[in-house]
Amino acid sequence: VYYVGAVGVSSYLITTPAGHILLDTGFADTVPIIRHVVEQLGFKLTDIKFILSSHAHIDHTGGHALMRQLTGAQVLASAGDARVLKSGGADDFIPFPRDTILYAPVKVDRIIKDGERVTLGDVTLTAHLTPGHTQGATTWTMEVKEAGRGYHLVFFSSASINSGTRLLRNPSYPGIAEDLERTFARLKGMPCDIFLAPHGGQFAMADKFARLERGE
Fold it and tell me: Contact at 8 Å (CB) between 45 and 73?
């Protein structure tokens, strides 16, 4: 598993002998960064077979259309997020200005259901629908081995509540509060040895490197 995204917005490459899986493409402008890092690691972008997503917001799926064009990979997503992907972000309940959330539309090749497994080569990822941040937000899990030890790895989808989002009587997402409640309960009971988020630690790491360069 390799981190191949930009600072602060995650993309993960999961490699297998039969090709690779890419989780999240970031913005359209992030795609060249991903391409550079993948090639720098010694892999071929065209060996990416599946493109997955944590949730269908512009900072995680804005590059899906371009990445599929460059790789020919299949795009997999939950039904809730597939609708948003097809609309290029227009069919989303997020209360932000339209011009800040729209991206190139992309058609989903395969709808992923809760508990469904995606297998490529010797790697299997399991989809867990954890709606609330988006209606189709998906947390992915897999098992990895390092030095003979097994680990439960969780690619967290996000469960934050965007500014301005109504939790009660929301006409665009009537069941958001109930979905979030179920999602929190589900995440709490999920085995996890390694936690990988769609945002987060990269900010701290970048700050640490900046401090070191300044001699602090």
Answer: no
Phi/psi at 138 (5° precision): -130, 120
Write out the two tokens for 190. Answer: 């999920």
Residue of 51, 40, 59, 25 lying closest to 134 (CA atoms)? 59
Q: Are 50 and 140 in contact (CB under 8 A)?
A: no
Cβ pair 61, 22 in contact under 8 A:
no
Model pLDDT, residue 175: 96
What is the share, in percent, of the chain residues with pLDDT greater than 70? 92
- The Cα 52–Cα 34 span in angstroms is 14
Q: Kindly report the pTM of this predicted structure.
A: 0.91
Q: Give the burial string for 179-198 (b: 16+ CB within 10 Å, else e).
A: bbeebeeebeeeeeeeebeb
Q: Tens digits of per-residue pLDDT, 178-197?
A: 999 999 999 999 999 999 99
Cα–Cα distance measured from residue 194 to residue 105, given in angstroms and rounded to the nearest whole number? 32
Strands of 63-135 (E only): list them. Answer: 74-78, 110-112, 117-120, 123-129
Q: Which residues contact 62 (CB under 8 A, 6 or more apart)?
A: 25, 26, 27, 28, 30, 89, 103, 104
pLDDT digits (tens, 9 = 90+) for 118-152: 999 999 999 999 999 999 999 999 999 989 999 99
- Entry field: residues in the chain: 216
Q: What pLDDT score does 204 carry?
A: 43
Task: Output the pLDDT for position 7.
Answer: 86
**3-class SS of residue 196:** strand
